[in-house]
Amino acid sequence: MDPHTIHTQFVxxxxxxxxxxxxxxxxxxxxxxxRSWEGQDIKSYGYVVMSSLAVMQxxxxxxxxxxxxxxxxxHLLILSMDHQERSFIYQGLLPLSGMSVVYAQxxxxxxxxxxxxxxxxxxxxxxxxxERSLWISALQQHIQEANTHCPPASLPxxxxxxxxxxxxxxxxxxxxxxLTSCPIQNWEGKAIQHMGCxxxxxxxxxxxxxxxxxxxxxxxxxxxxxxxxxxDPDRTAVIHQGTLPLNAVHIEEILDERLEFxxxxxxxxxxxxxxxxxxxxxxxxxxxxxxxxxxCGVGLHPLPFVKPKYRRx
Length: 313
What we know:
The protein has helices at residues 3-11, 22-31, 129-149, 160-163, 169-179, 278-289, and strands spanning 50-58, 64-71, 75-82, 87-95, 100-103, 110-116, 119-126, 184-185, 200-207, 215-221, 225-231, 238-245, 249-253, 260-265, 268-275. It is of the alpha+beta class. The radius of gyration is 22 Å and the shape is elongated.
């Protein structure tokens, strides 16, 4: 179907929540604030090709969530809904370049699956068979156009190659999902899935002595634990390097020009941590100084900037 036909069919049907038509909701998305929105102005992504309610499930989880999907010419926007406040909440913006879409064989529902080099496979259940057909048709057409504008790169051996370095918020979120579901070599203690909701993650360099060599580490913060991980050179495997209980450690800022702090405790050697960005540094200082104020979710709320301390010359 051509874009005009798809657009006409979807706009002509009433929507089933908030007393609004589909056209009203599309206008609301383009003109009103979306909670937790990040990135460019939403208008920069172009016009709304189509939109609808759906139920989405990421392949490695059993959790299914209601969402409102909005297709732009080169991106697929995923929103959740706060029905009490009648507002949309940002959940993700998926590039169409390199994406694939196929029918999913399930016992119930009208389901298709989307996957791509930078996203985990997701199953999408539509409200009807005709709606699923429209989505697949529209997605296939715009994926082809997106690949013309931005040809997909060759696939790496692992999703880790896309997510590391985790220098963007969406990468941090996807990396947390990956780490809490993938096998981790040399893991000890309670399962990572039982540690609670991850609060923050970043790539750091760590040294176990003041004069020791720095090594790359992924540092992952949970409500009661601080986990250190490493990744093999090919970025295909994750290795556990240690876990520290938060109630047994504290941090000391270092009077230096670099973004460093030290983790100390009664029964451990000090660990020197070098952050990659001022933003990561300020968040680690905030979280590790104030564990009682941790909020669930990777960087969901803006934090006050903590200026690094500098040595006087």
